């Protein structure tokens, strides 16, 4: 489950997101959220999906794109941490 800081980051991301064509700054905000998640409890992909839906990300494809990225990014961060 998302904590208050994580929910706040996701809220700011969604409410500035260009849902039709995410802007590089949109991705930067989502990267920041993903790093925060990695450092503070690794929220599940299901939590992120549900939070994006609750925050108003209307397109299923858009949600899926960010959730898919989120899962792969956590795997990458985990792998990086293991090699350090």
Reconstruct the topology from this structure.
Blueprint (H helix, E strand, L loop, with lengths): L3 H11 L9 H16 L5 H11 L4 H24 L1
Give an account of the 3D structure.
The radius of gyration is 12 Å and the shape is globular. It has helices at residues 4-14, 24-39, 45-55, 60-83. The termini are far apart. It has one domain. The protein has 84 residues and is mostly helical. 20% of the residues are buried. The mean pLDDT is 92. It has four helices and no strands. Helix content is 74%, strand content 0%.
pLDDT averaged residue by residue = 92
* Class inferred from helices and paired strands: mainly alpha
How large is the share of residues in beta strands? under 5%
State the domain count. Answer: 1
How far is the N terminus from the C terminus? 28 Å
Largest sheet descriptor: none
Count of beta strands: 0
> Considering DSSP H and I runs of 4 or more, what fraction of the residues is helical?
over 70%
CA radius of gyration is 12 Å
What's the short story on this structure?
The protein is mostly helical.
Keywords:
mainly alpha; 0% strand
């Amino acid at each position: 489950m998302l904590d208050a800081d994580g929910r706040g980051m996701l809220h700011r991301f969604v409410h500035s997101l260009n849902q039709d064509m995410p802007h590089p700054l949109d991705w930067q905000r989502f990267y920041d959220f993903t790093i925060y998640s990695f450092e503070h409890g690794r929220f599940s992909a299901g939590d992120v999906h549900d939070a994006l839906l609750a925050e108003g990300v209307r397109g299923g494809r858009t949600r899926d794109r960010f959730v898919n990225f989120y899962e792969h990014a956590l795997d990458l961060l985990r792998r990086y941490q293991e090699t350090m």
